[in-house]
Specification:
- This protein is an all-alpha fold.
- It has seven helices and no strands.
Length: 123
């Protein structure tokens, strides 16, 4: 358990360094993430879990396993992945602003600090 926390902290700090270097690309607001929470609960939680990492059908969207897979990527890559693969069986059916909000929510769940304005993931 202690090792998992250390790995998560190291990955978070590593991604935070990327976020600092790409402030505009990773910028989102807490309001944007908050606005996506009802959509997450109605569209995503049934597979990925209400806690983002406790779903029976989908992989975790936060934590060590998620950071190991996506920690080196960009927010734009995460957005594109969501848009082209989610929801399962109906990819691309959400509005661009909804995918941006879900991306913001996932970033926040992984301890990426919100900015003052929506960046390239904005509406």
């Amino acid at each position: 358990m202690k090792n998992d926390r250390r790995v998560l902290l190291a990955l978070t700090l590593s991604l935070a360094g990327v976020a600092h270097a790409q402030d505009l690309a990773l910028s989102y607001t807490d309001e944007q993430a908050d606005g996506a929470l009802p959509l997450y609960q109605s569209t995503c939680a049934s597979c990925h879990g209400g806690n983002f990492d406790d779903g029976a059908l989908g992989p975790p969207l936060k934590g060590v396993q998620f950071m190991q897979k996506f920690g080196g990527g960009t927010a734009a890559e995460l957005y594109a992945l969501l848009q082209t693969t989610m929801p399962t069986g109906q990819p691309g059916t959400l509005a661009p602003s909804e995918y941006a909000g879900l991306t913001a929510l996932i970033l926040r769940e992984n301890l990426i600090v919100a900015g003052q304005a929506e960046g390239v993931l904005g509406n």
